[in-house]
Specification:
By secondary structure, the chain is α/β, with parallel strands linked by helices. It contains 6 helices and 7 strands. Strands 3-2-1-4-5-7-6 form a 7-stranded mixed β-sheet, with helices on both faces.
């Protein structure tokens, strides 16, 4: 549960409040601003390890929460997890059998970055597109989607692609994001189906 950016105030607050990472506060901000999760929403969380978003999601809904990641997610009460790739048809089938209705798909995942800006940007956008494709396969009409991305030359294409599938698409910069980061969230509501 370390932070590659050091032990800043947000990281220390996360530790103090029992969250697995600072990312918990990002989801809280998104929820406060956009209300993407309702009390009876079933949620699928892509790239969910270490699980701080899952911890927040469990407090926002009384319905089912499923976390998916390539890495094992340490146990959290009331959370179901799948260790696998979101692009694997078996993972998709597993989600469908666990949850006949999916109201919200969230993705705070990011690939391991190499330090080469254009290469990293392309990999981030590719992961974002995969998360969007997954959401379009499982979301019920009217469902919501949020995904972490990074500003760059490929970002407008992702934004446009998301707008094709949702009636409302906005971007959100969170206060919990480390200073100097180009990170932002695409928050899409009301899936066209």
């Amino acid at each position: 549960m370390g932070s590659q950016w050091g032990y800043d105030k947000t990281y220390m607050r996360a530790k103090l409040e029992g969250y697995r990472s600072r990312a918990a506060f990002k989801l809280m901000e998104i929820q406060k601003k956009f209300e993407i999760i309702r009390r009876d929403d079933n949620i699928v969380d892509l790239g969910a390890a270490p699980g701080s978003w899952l911890q927040v999601e469990r407090t926002l809904t009384d319905a089912r929460v499923v976390g998916i990641d390539l890495n094992q997610i340490a146990h959290l009460d009331g959370i179901e997890t799948i260790e696998g790739d979101l692009n694997d048809p078996e993972v998709l089938q597993q989600v469908r059998s666990m949850m006949p209705v999916v109201n919200v798909v969230l993705c705070d995942a990011a690939p391991k970055l190499s330090g080469h800006k254009s290469y990293d940007q392309a990999r981030v956008i590719e992961l974002n597109e995969q998360a969007l494709a997954f959401a379009c396969k499982v979301l019920k009409q009217g469902g919501n989607f949020a995904v972490k991305s990074f500003q760059g030359t490929d970002f407008p294409e992702l934004y446009a692609a998301t707008r094709e599938h949702f009636y409302s698409v906005k971007t959100c910069l969170t206060k919990s994001t480390r200073k100097g980061s180009t990170e932002l969230y695409v928050v899409a509501k009301n899936f066209k189906g």
